[in-house]
Structure prediction request, 606 residues.
Amino acid sequence: MRPQVLRGGLVFDGLGSPARELDVWVDSGAIAALLPPGSAVSEDVESVDVRGCWVTPGFLDIHTHYDAELELWPALGESVRHGVTTVFLGSCGLSLAVGEPDELADMFCRVEGIPRACVAPMLARVKDWDGPGDYLQHLERLPLGPHVAALLGHSAIRAAAMGLGRSLDARATPRPDELARMKALLHEALDAGFLGLSINTLPWDKMDGQQFRSRPTPSVFASWSEYRALAAVLRARGRVLQGVPDVSTKLNVLLFAALSTGIARAALKTTLIAMMDAPPARGVHRVAGVLTRLVNHLLGGDLRFQALPNPFDMWVDGIEVPVFEEFGAGTEALHLEEPGARAALLRDPAYRRRFRRQWRDRLRGRAYHRDLGRTQILACPEDQLVGKSFAEVAAARGSDPIDTLLDLVAEHGTALRWQTIVANDRPDRLEWIVRHPYAQIGFSDAGAHLRNMAYYNFPLRLLRMVRAAAARGRPIMSPERAVHRVTGELAQWFGLDAGRLAPGARADLVVVDPEALDDRLDALHEQPVAPPAAGGPFSELRRLVRRNDAAVRRVLVAGRGLARRRARARARPRALRHRPPRGMTCPFGHVISHASRWRGAPPRIG
Prediction:
């Protein structure tokens, strides 16, 4: 890799320090120096003009489901193109680190909206690892685009210790030797450098395949005594627990909060999904905010909520989306894979009575608003319906909106495509969320729900929100703070040496044109998941994306630009291990030359 110097940009250190106009010298995959503008460097250094742009550390995406996609297209270009240089795997209790290929596919595919016919044979072909340590070594052999860091999935280790059948049996509790096996796998993962453990208590995340189809994933069947036993390992070793509460009832959030408390013991780093402003539970985001302050300030805990800095919008083909798993009648329909059988069920009067009763039940908690007036039909063989809500179609037909939805899905299946906003629909509440000190910005689900969501560019949308608020004269935070929220703040909390720009730090950085942070960030496109030559079942898959390439001028991962992804070089993206970040003090206190570490003439200061 030829050394380069990025000249004239406004440089953000990722730690919240005031931005400064500096030249950034990159050599051998690291930041060689931060120089006063116009400093002379050796002749072999490529000069890149980035005047008018922001130079920031690469963004972190702390919640993805790239675990399967990584095995096929490890460049993960849809995230990297938006400046994400580190992604986390192993969320929501799901992980490919431990287990048999068929069982891992059953746990992963339906929850994450990825066809099992694609994933199961791929895993059978590529799985060459045996346990967490081997898994990280396997990841390092891949030609990665971004760096990857991993959580261990509780569902995976539970199935490995108990057998998949017992792990999915509500009557079965782990024997002492089985619980010891889970702890041993967790210790092995932490020894290898995993960040922690993810668990899932959400019962509408369901199994795929045929053997145990439509049962919740293994982690859901665990008792709180099992969760506490594993949390004790994390607490003792200073690692992270990621939890998925039951977002329908929301009550077990209090149990997660209790796990995090630190009175007479060490606090447990706990990150929960998610802080949102949703129509069925207006104000719950404020309750979550108060809870974090109570736990962290009065009870010695370390509790965070993940959050998106943008509307939680959702696109649906027919009823192919996890929110329909929130109630039994929805799962009953999604259990049927054959379109004719599903259509027959949807037309059955007895089924419709069950569906209608459960859809309208307000005594049971819900995450999805189920307001058919808050929908818009985007595509349908009946062209005259496009642009209307299900409620509007029902009114025109003189029918019940729920019956109208079921009629259209039964008739057209996945050829019916519609859209709704599930949460974060009120800009002032969303601004409150992203300002909250215990919100962690990042909940993209990248690599999953390919046809349902498109949040790959969430860091750019945060930066746009901050600039727009300042332009209105109502600033919500400084640009430095916004950059900190998606870089150094996350890296420091999770224990990664990442997310900062300083001499000697790895050269993961993004060049952003702030003038291009505009409405183009919202434009939605459909793109093939696989490269054109991939063939096989993946060749038909398409994903929703939002792209505004004008906003990101340049991305370096370990010093390599996208165009040089395949270049042979000593520095390259890798599997990052847990390690407390070094040098997290302000690197802008003075401008430093580390000339002795870099080839060529030293930079001149001044």
The mean pLDDT is 92. The longest strand covers residues 4-11. The chain is about 30% helix and 20% strand.
